[in-house]
């Protein structure tokens, strides 16, 4: 989709009227290709850092990054974090917390290797073979 000029035109057009424009995981590449991340700090999946920066974004390994109306989230699971933060922005903290409770979003991963900073080298290398 990052190579589809018509779709990128639509993204740029729709962004002019959104309250928030958001992306999850490699969706940030679409925002970058549309020129929306130029000079902004953003996040995405760690496997596309170079591509994201090639679009003019400044990569950060944070799970969720807000730059004005643009919010990017890292890998797929961080999209849930972003959704809860977005719920707070669109309503209030109590509503966001109620949504978190209602969805039973209480992450307890079986391993502590969910970020490049935490994963041992051999796990990082194995992950690279999966993509």
Give the overall pLDDT as a whole number: 97
The number of helical segments is: 6
Structural class: alpha/beta
User: What are the segments in which pLDDT stays under 50 over at least 5 consecutive residues?
Assistant: none
Give the C-level CATH assignment: Alpha Beta
Number of strands: 5
Second rung of CATH, namely the architecture: 3-Layer(aba) Sandwich
Largest sheet: 3 strands, mixed
The strands making up the biggest β-sheet line up spatially as 1-5-4
- Percent helix among the residues? 40-55%
H-E order:
HEHEHEEEHHH
Strand content: 5-15%
CATH superfamily: Class I glutamine amidotransferase (GATase) domain
Q: What is the CATH T-level topology? A: Rossmann fold
What radius of gyration results from the CA coordinates? Answer: 16 Å
Distance between the termini: 18 Å
Query: What is the count of structural domains?
Result: 1
Indicate the overall shape.
flat
């Amino acid at each position: 989709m990052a190579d589809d000029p018509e779709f990128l035109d639509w993204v740029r057009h729709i962004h002019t009227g959104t309250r928030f424009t958001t992306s999850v995981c490699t969706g940030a590449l679409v925002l970058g290709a549309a020129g929306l991340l130029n000079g902004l700090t953003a996040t995405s999946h760690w496997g596309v850092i170079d591509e994201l920066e090639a679009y003019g974004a400044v990569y950060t390994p944070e799970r969720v990054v807000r730059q004005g109306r643009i919010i990017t989230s890292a890998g797929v699971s961080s999209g849930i974090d972003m959704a809860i933060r977005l719920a707070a922005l669109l309503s209030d903290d109590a509503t966001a917390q109620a949504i978190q409770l209602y969805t039973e979003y209480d992450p307890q991963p079986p391993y502590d290797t969910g970020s490049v900073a935490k994963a041992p080298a051999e796990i990082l290398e194995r992950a690279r073979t999966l993509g």
